């Protein structure tokens, strides 16, 4: 579903990604972890064409991002993205947040978009909050709305960038539960997260990044089960967070 091949990226003189190669197969859940500043957010933004890259290519569901003729807005509409800071529209109701892109980007009618949005809101356990504004919801609730909003676009893959890092601890699980459910339903997911419990439970593979390089890319069982076989940086990282 996602194929990242030899991707390098610079911000000016600073090389932020170095020859990154990996893939995410249909239905697979891949967790990306690594120290702050290692390039995790940049890599995931490249997959969604929110950031350009200078070398290599990324294909999403067979569409090359580097090919000059690719319709990037169209591709972006098929890739669900959930950020650390929920990025809901504060002046719109929850329902309006859930329907706006369906109507503007996918051209769905208001009734269809609302029906779809409300069904997804129910799925994340927030059916009673449809008429509220984001500011009236807790962080965990806002993040669940953000997930529902992404799902409303019928994405072929869901990207998450530290979706629980900005939440109070007691709200982390309500968001992770939704993500676990999605994973178990077969959604293809690439998740930047340091929630290793989540990784162990649902990830098929774990990627570890360090200074712009993918230095580990292995099955979840091997990543956690055979720590001695991991590289020095990954071992140090795991020692700190496990
Ligand atoms: P991570 O998500 O792993 O913490 P990022 O992908 O956000 O890492 O950032 C990787 C590196 O790129 C960091 O050193 C960061 O300071 C740098 N960086 C990120 N965004 C920009 C930008 N827009 N311009 C210049 N440098 C950036
Ligand atoms: Mg980041």
TrEMBL record:
Compartments reported by the entry: Cell inner membrane
Keywords of this entry: Amino-acid transport, ATP-binding, Cell inner membrane, Cell membrane, Membrane, Nucleotide-binding, Transport
Gene3D superfamilies, A to Z: P-loop containing nucleotide triphosphate hydrolases (3.40.50.300)
Membrane topology of the entry: Peripheral membrane protein
Signal peptide range: none
Family of the protein in this entry: Belongs to the ABC transporter superfamily.
Official protein name in the record: Amino acid ABC transporter, ATP binding component
Organism: Azotobacter vinelandii (strain DJ / ATCC BAA-1303)
